[in-house]
## 1
Amino acid sequence: MIRLVARRIGWALVVIWFVVTATFLLATRLPSNPAKTMLGPHADAAAIKLVEDEYQLRENVLVQYGTWVKKVATGDLGKSYRSQSPIMQILGERIWPTIQLALAAIFLQLLIGLPLGILAAVRKRRWPDRATTVVTLLAQSAPQFLLGTLVLYVFAYRFGWFPISGYGDGGLDRLWHLVLPAFTLASVGIAYYARAVRSEMVDVLGEDYIRTARAKGLPERTVIGKHALRNALGPLVTLVGLDLGVLLGGAVVVESIFAWPGLGREVLQAVLDVDLPLITGTVLVAAIAIAVANLLVDLLLLWLDPRLRDR
Amino acid sequence: MKALAVLLALCACNTPDRRPKGNVAGATPKSGGTLHIATKDQISSLDPTLVYEEVSTYIMQPLFATLVTYAPASRDPGALPPLTVVPDLAERWEITADGLTYRFYLRDKLAYEDGGPIVAGDFKYSLERALSRADSPYRGFLVDIVGATEVTEATPDCAGIVAVSARELEIRLIHPSSSFLYILAMKFATPQRGSWAKPRLENGQLRREPLASGPFKLGAPWDEGTKIVLVKNEHYWAAASTYLAAIEMRENIPRDTQFLMFERGELDTAEKLSPPDYVWLKGDKDWERYVRQTAQMVVFGARMDTNQEPFTDPRVRRALNYALDKDHTVKLLNGAAVPSHGMLSPGMLGRDATLGAYPHDPEKARALLMQAGYGTRFGFAPLELTYVTQNDEQAETLAGAMQADLAEVGVTLKIELVSFATLSTMTGSSDRPKFSLTSWVGDYPDPTNFLDVRFHSRAIADETATNDTNYSNPEVDALLDAARGEIDTEKRAVMYRRAERIIFHDAPWIFDYHPLTTEVIQPYVGGYEIHPIWGRDYTHTFLDDGTTSTVPP
């Protein structure tokens, strides 16, 4: 068991290293000179050389990579070309809004997706099932920029129930600001969860032990809630874990629409500015989030299903 | 289904009142209140020595005062207002007859936000910081000062900048400069107290902790990327003519969202309106008078490398200027632009208003191309070009229009889209594309900041060229040099007009348009016009929304 866990952790580290290295190498190949971006159009060659030397921009890519790895090993991710702020500081400030948004989205996905899925399975081929299919299909196919703009227009602008954008001042105000972005971000997940739960539940409800439970005269609520649902939740654990990993990497579109100061918006700005240290820093966070989430899912499944431990 | 129907019905019933709301501002300024504004971008830093982009200027202007500044904007849509230099922290100045020595006399009892005195040595410190920092974009502006080129990070003392006394500053130049006062009005020339800056430079916090010398100061720690709050600085010498108690600027708000927030009254102004919002406002008789539109010192066009075929032939360059329909460009920009015939914006010194843009004349364009050996008939060589432009919506639309215009005269245009950062690196490098989008945003309203930078042969270089067309004409060089050293404004204007004509005829760019900046304000916002230099300058703005009070006499 310990060897298995160690192997998984090892693989997670390899994945993180690979993703970040690939990003670093790709980003250094972009045709953009940060020294010129930083100094503006009036910079002379001497000034550009000074900045290029300071940031090692004239060095060979492998030398730049080597220096970068050495720095990362000491917890220094460098400074942003654009704002000159330490990357660690930027990531530190941006990660918390992203965590809040990700957790809120997961919460909504479970809160809405789970009951919808159960309802659709229990009322299979009747109108609740068909309505769920239509709604989930719409939610899955609507792009987030469209849905985000739509909910913003309807619920914030027309009705004024929610703030149009921003992060709020903490407490209830923050929660109030969180609703629309979290709902937009959760929309696809809600649909996935509903469909996954429905399909699992439909399978489980056809099993012999469910028939036995019903034959014993157990109330339908117990049959569904205790016997069927518990067995249908396995795949949902995987979905939630992977989603959490992806969401923690930042939600570019939703954060931009709602001016949510998270990692996603920072990634977008970094790419537009070709801000290499910031690009690699944000990718590093995303890669760690996904790798850790995968690892946790694996461990959780091992714990839930002892049969997997022998594989 | 029922829920959806109810929602749709609610939406239909709940049509918001889109007419202007609230009190209409009177002519008398009122004091107090918080102005709520937003920007779609993100402020990069509050360090005046290092920051060089538009959105940060919005905040630099209220935070930092300089020796001299520009008179407030006046309402003159379509052309630049006269940008007069007026005293700010300096109460007066003297320039010697040879134009080489400037002596500034500071006002009495000038103070920073903390009440500490502003002294002449603080100007010396900030100018030397701009000269000695490798990563300062402003080094190039100060090279006319005696000893400036010898300044390094290790030896920051500049012989030409002397703090004669606490209230007297002397700056000596190598040769006369008609634009030096403009340069001193730029925000990097604000006084900085060394004892404040040095410890913050060491811990990296100067970019977040400015020491204000202007009409406003930071009211709360900057919530970077989200919002910045400024409050009135009572220590500013002209605090009596600052009316707002605070300015709250939200960052990273997309322009469509800004307009929705504006309509709901959450914002007091909305900038850079999207075309549908702009057209709607201009067409609404109630809103029209609250739309502000001003010419900026900005020009857009297409640069052609005069060293590379087919642009070595001026007939080809002129032909493309005739081929492009600038009126169509203005239509595509919903009227928020003026066709250009050169780099200088309407109203600027040296601009020849009688010249007019190249007319849209496909016949003439075809004839010129045939004279140069290009065409689609009679065995002429067909002309195929690649145009590199920026991957944003507006640039793509305009490139598409250019493609159609050039097709009309038999030129096949291939469009290549790249990001802004990539485009500026490409055009600044030795293997630059021969045909690409170009633009210029002026730092100050003098032709030296436009024509000298983009069309003087001195600015041709392999790696750091600002003259990225390799355009070289000895007559233009001589005119620009003579005008630069001339002090008499009228004589300078004559020389620049002559240079403009020659450049127009040589056509190293397809001159396209000068954009107009638009902003809409709430009826209760008074004393506000867009400033051509600062963009948004709310220094003399006031709110007349019923919560503010009359300014005591």
Note: Chain A touches chain B through 51 residues (CB under 8 Å).
## 2
Amino acid sequence: MPTGVESPAKVGTTQSPRLATEADAIRLAQGGDAGAFEQLYQLHSRRVYALCLRMVGNPSDAEDLLQEAFLQLFRKIGTFRGESAFSTWLHRMTVNVVLMRLRKKSLPAASLEETTEPDEETGGPRKDIGAPDLRLSGAVDRVNLERSIEKLPPGYRTVFVLHDVQGFEHNEIAGIMGCSVGNSKSQLHKARTRLRELLQEDLRDQARAERHAAKTQAGLGD
Amino acid sequence: MECKDIEVVLEQEGLEPLPEEARAHLAECVDCRSYVADLTALVDVANKLPAEIAPPERVWVSLRAQLEAEGIIRQAAEEVTAQPTSWWSSLQAFFSNRVLATSSVGIVLVAAAVFLVRSESVAPPSRAEIARRTPPITQVVPPANQPAKGPNAAGPLTAPSRVSAPAEFASTAQALDDQEPLATGLIASSNSTIDASLRDNLKKVNEFIADCERHLKDQPQDELTREYLSAAYQQKAELLSAIIERGRSIN
């Protein structure tokens, strides 16, 4: 379960002042400057590591992926021309590295076209009729949300983490994932819907366990 | 607006702000209202999850070593010589360029050593003196009847044969030797690039220590080699500490 530095500021809020420094660091790094490489690493490694950790779920693999992503980035830094934001370029490499690793581990690397099953009668949102105890308000916490995120298919997980956790906008995610903005929005919505289902299953399991414990206790008390 | 339209709106517009029509529907439909409330609740929690998580220092250490090995970082030597440095920094920089160029330049930056083997009261050789007196590391150990051998020498690397450590380092060397099996055991079965790099670094440090010990046995008056050996023990201590920390995190 990832525990890390609290970072209430999401990406993009201090873009302009940082951009000048980053642009210099990129230029120096293209010339082989050691300090510039380290500066770029310090600027981006925490976000990249957070993404890797949430995608693979364990620190050891996440560290390997972090190193691999930056290694690829720095090997190709001479080709960076600034057509996209450096952060977007880095995150694109990271996502590719992560998904390749997940495929090698034979986990189903979901395509971006995974579908949910909408309600067959109305075509509307899935409903949990008669299940007021499955409302998530007040029942979702960080622990069970992180646990549920790990259960998402990789494609959904990527979009959800990039948008709702790391604060990327859909146009940025489209650049990272190599998809359209519409596709990014669609996948995000499906990810959220799937997370809702996973969290409700969690609540159901908890409620079942509590009822069982209560019965056992009552039986012992007889 | 009907229930199925809410799904389309949520997909295209997100959760906020919802259009007037959608809000009107939610006011009348309990199920859709609950659905939106659930999604809002989980997104609220997601927004509060840490967007950044600090990785362990060892990742940069390993990454930097790899970048230098590939020649992608090309100005590490010039950076070091451009700045006035303490005796310890001079020795570290010298090591990073000459002896453990592909491996441990970052290791020396890792958190505090387990052992401090030499006090700084010993007059350090100046940088110019080091550069003038010291040949490439493969020649630092010129035992009379054996070919020059060191971490950068050509040929297969084998487990270094050790002579006994000089008396003033004996307890330190023994303590490090006692810790080494514990450390290497923790990452023995790992195939990750970081662990392979750590094992490789440890091998190079051990070979260098063996070279220095052999040289000091033949020329015990060589203070420069004694300083190198001191630094190498410290590097080994730091490296073992990093390996143990890494091993505990993956086991």
Note: Chain A touches chain B through 73 residues (CB under 8 Å).
